[in-house]
Write the C-alpha cells for this entry.
Amino acid sequence: KQEVTQIPAALSVPEGENLVLNCSFTDSAIYNLQWFRQDPGKGLTSLLLIQSSQREQTSGRLNASLDKSSGRSTLYIAASQPGDSATYLCAVRRSNYQLIWGAGTKLIIKP
Amino acid sequence: EAGVTQFPSHSVIEKGQTVTLRCDPISGHDNLYWYRRVMGKEIKFLLHFVKESKQDESGMPNNRFLAERTGGTYSTLKVQPAELEDSGVYFCASSHAGPLAGGNEQFFGPGTRLTVL
C-alpha cells in the first residue's frame, strides 16, 4: 500500500530564505509525482509534475526533484516571499490514475 | 481557457438531507476525478470517469454516494442521505491524456465545502 509522508508538517522562515520541503513515498513504482499549493479556503494549484523518468523540474523559483529509488521528492523554493505562504502538498500517481496524497506542509514566510 | 469549476462552493445541510455537487471539467478533458478531504485527514480518491464511463469507483465510501457524468461533460456527485461524517471538502479534477499516460497532469477545481449538521 502506497503511503506518502511530508515533513515538516509546518515551517516558518523569514522572507528571502531558500527552503526545502520534503515528500517521501513507500512504493517506488510510481508514474509521476505532483506538487500542489493550497491557499486557505482555496482550491489546489498544480505547481510541478515530475514524470517517473525525470529527475527534476523547474518553474521560476521552484525546483522539484525526484529520487524514485529512495522514495523521495523535494520542493526547493528560492528567495522565499510572503506570497509563498500556503500549504504545499505532494501526490504520487501509481499505475492507475489515483493520486495518493501527503498531509501537506504548512509554510509561513515572515516579512 | 476556463479551469475546472465546481458548484456550489459551500453547502450546509442537515443530516439525512440530500446534496448534489457539480463539477465542470476543462473542455476537452476526457478524464474526470473526484477526491475529498475530511477534517484532519489526507485527500482521498473517490472515483474516476473516462468520458461518461466510471473507470474506477473503488474510493467511494458507501452506496449513499452516487456519481454521474452525463454525456461525458459535467459530473455530479450526490450524497443521499447525508451523514455527519460526510462533511469535508470535495474536489474535482480533470486531465487530458489517457489514464496510463505518465504525464497527464490533473487540474483541480476550487472544491465544495460540505458541512452536515
About this structure: The CA atoms of residues 13 and 115 of chain B lie 6 Å apart.
